[in-house]
Amino acid sequence: MILVNGQTDIQLSPTDRGFQYGDGLFETLYVNQAGIEFWHEHLQRLSEGCQRLGLKPPNESLLFNESRRLIDNSTTPAVLKILISRSGAGRGYRPPVDHQVTRIVSLHPLALYPDHWQTEGVRVRICSTLASINPSLAGIKHINRLEQVLARTEWGDERIAEGLMFDALGRLIEGTMTNVFLVKGGELYTPNIAHAGVLGVMRRVLIDAAARLDIAVHVGDIDQEQLAQADEVLLTNSIIGVWLVKSVDEFSYSLGQIGQQLQLEVGRIRQKQTLALS
Q: Taking Cα atoms as reference points, which of 225, 241, 231 lies closest to residue 188?
């Protein structure tokens, strides 16, 4: 089921700037029987992204009521998607000063990943598609995902769970749908997202989990050699939580103690950060 500006009779204008130019933002949230995970964290990122793009921020209560309306008529677990775009104002890149926003809330079945990926680790590859360097857009989850679309078309092997993307300077940025962490010498390393990539909600959760476990976290540039020499590799997003990586192309990794501890701790945090629907 999909609601567009609160209505079920979907009428999206072809002049909507989200459709025309990718002028908008989105959030993807995990819904379980207890409610919506990390609702406030997702809405905070959405609001921050609106400020960056000069979009009118959404009404959180309105979005929650529409989300609850969809979830109450469905089964869980599920994936909730919230998309905000700038409404159309004729042709041209310059956005109108006084604009309206299009609000789309939709609920989707949970992707059926193999159960053993969570326990036995996943296989990953390196993509040839590069992540663009653009500090103006770095961090926010804007709706122009063409780079990720191109990267994801690079493989059809269902045994490969994810692809990693580098930028033109050879720096590891993220996966097509995940943030990336390396473990080396008992410490955690993750790419700097100041120039490209998305500041994932679950990325922040894992960093908090590492602090609880007294695991040092380093944010900075990571190249392919460092990736190859890592002891462990982890992937995160709001739907999968934490995946442990067993291989990236020809490189193999252990499903080590650090990754397993973080996976368990993130699971505990997720249980406590669910917004009830009642």
A: 231
pLDDT for residue 88? 73
Helices (H) and strands (E) in the chain, counts: 8, 15
- The CATH superfamily holding the domain 115-273 is D-amino Acid Aminotransferase, subunit A, domain 2 (3.20.10.10)
Fold of 2-109: D-amino Acid Aminotransferase; Chain A, domain 1 (3.30.470)
Nearest to 147 by CA among 127, 161, 162: 127
Q: Which among 264, 254, 253 has a CA at the least distance from the CA of 215?
A: 264
What would the DSSP string read from start to end of 5-24? TTBSS----TT-HHHHH--E
Contact 198, 177 (CB under 8 A): no
Angle at Cα 270 formed by Cα 114 and Cα 227, nearest 5°?
60
Residue with tokens 């690079």: 154
Please tell me the distance from the alpha carbon of residue 227 to that of residue 8, in angstroms, as a whole number. Answer: 46
Spell out, as residue ranges, where the chain has pLDDT lower than 70: 89
Residue 12's pLDDT is 83
Domain ranges within the chain, ordered by starting residue? 2-109, 115-273
Q: What pLDDT, on a 0 to 100 scale, did the predictor assign at position 258?
A: 97
Q: For tokens 């959404």, name the residue.
A: 58
Q: Which residues of 150-183 are buried (b: 16+ CB within 10 A; e: fewer)?
A: ebbeeeeeeeebbbbbbbeeebbbbbbbbbbbbb
**CB-based burial, 93-107: b 16+ in 10 Å, e otherwise:** eeeeeeeebbbbbbb
Q: Measured in Å, how far apart are the chain's first and last C-alpha atoms? A: 20
- In a 10 Å sphere around its CB, with 0-12 CB exposed, 13-18 middle and 19+ buried, how is residue 131 labelled? buried
Contact 218, 241 (CB under 8 A): no
